[in-house]
Amino acid sequence: MHSENRTKYVQKLWEVWKTAARLGLVSFGGPVAHLGYFREEYVKRKQWIDEKTYADLVALCQLLPGPASSQVGIGIGFLRAGMLGAVAAWLGFTLPSALILLLFAYFSAEVPIDWLHGLLVVAVAVVAHAVWGMAKVFAPDRSRATIAVASAILSFSIPNAGGQVAIIIVAGMIGSFLYRHHSRTAVLSVPAFPRKTAGVLLIFFMLLGLLPIVARLTSSPFIALFDSFYRAGALVFGGGHVVLPLLQSEVVPKGWVTDNQFLAGYGMAQAVPGPLFTFATYVGMASFGWKGAIVATIAIFLPSFLLVIGTLPFWEWIRQHSRFQAAFHGIHAAVVGLLLAALYHPVWTKAIQTPADFCLALAAFCLLTVWKCPPLVVVIISAMIGALI
């Protein structure tokens, strides 16, 4: 009987991985589109969870730092098949785009420089599109718009990862005061989750505090790489686009990649399905080869595992805590400001060098926002036109 149970569990894990891998191959369009794909597959077709549980899981993951769509997938895998199910769901959804970006980093030296410049230019349009969309959602009123603008200005005064973290913390404090009486949308309660999983939150905070110390005490570039990407995954609010300013301030000054390499990889990351956080795979590969790709990819997604699994038992408390909810109004507004600053530097300053570059970026922005073209199509068109001009 024990053998039969084990066989059934292995089959369940295989089904989780296979389903997530199929989603990882076809999920173009960013995190909002990913959540639509997930609902269609996991809720309506597979019926692994019901609408109520899915809605609550999405709400929780949108409050947490990290890639919301990947976190929802991890949560569904955990509910379906425990910790190994969470790993299987993450691997399946992440591997397709990670492998594509790894190969791009490996062969990018052979890609004509004109094509790479087209990727730099399309990054302007993509980030501008992200700023525009996020500003409408996260900075719709005067106070949050002011927080966003102030965050953008301050990010140039303290242009490092520590400064960005400080800006986010202060914005959260301001938000917790300004929006403490802000009405909240009612959220349905999730099933009871095992309290023993809450212990992983301790691991999350221990790694966040100890990794910088270990990186300074050792000379290992891989520990330094793990520290940088773990911190990025742990402190990025608002989705994959927001990882751009934090990672740029981490990896470019250290000489791991150049600004042009960084932005070319970011532009390419828009063209592939799956989570944008697999951009870490590209940077790791470009910096330290395949070992760096593995280290960076695991490091940037590990906080998502620890946060989702660790906070599930406390979701009911988080849902009802008004100060906690209010803080995120300020945090998300600050995120818009940080991304706005990144739109200027390094994205704009590195990519827009001639009037033709500006025209190409404007056309790409129009394709994304007005014509609603898939990012893959816009990236290919921009790369080709970049080669011509």
- Oligomer, anyone? single chain
Rounded mean pLDDT score: 84
Based on Cα principal axes, name the global outline.
Answer: globular
End-to-end CA span: 68 Å
What is the number of helices?
Answer: 16
Count the domains: 1
What's the story with the biggest beta sheet?
Answer: none
* Percent helix range: over 70%
Low-confidence stretches: 185-192
Number of strands: 0
Helix-strand pattern, N to C?
A: HHHHHHHHHHHHHHHH
| Class by alpha and beta content | mainly alpha
Question: What is the gyration radius calculated from CA atoms?
Answer: 20 Å
Name the beta content range.
Answer: under 5%
GO molecular function: chromate transmembrane transporter activity
Family: Belongs to the chromate ion transporter (CHR) (TC 2.A.51) family.
Transmembrane segments: 87-109, 115-135, 147-178, 198-217, 229-247, 293-315, 327-348, 360-388
Membrane topology: Multi-pass membrane protein
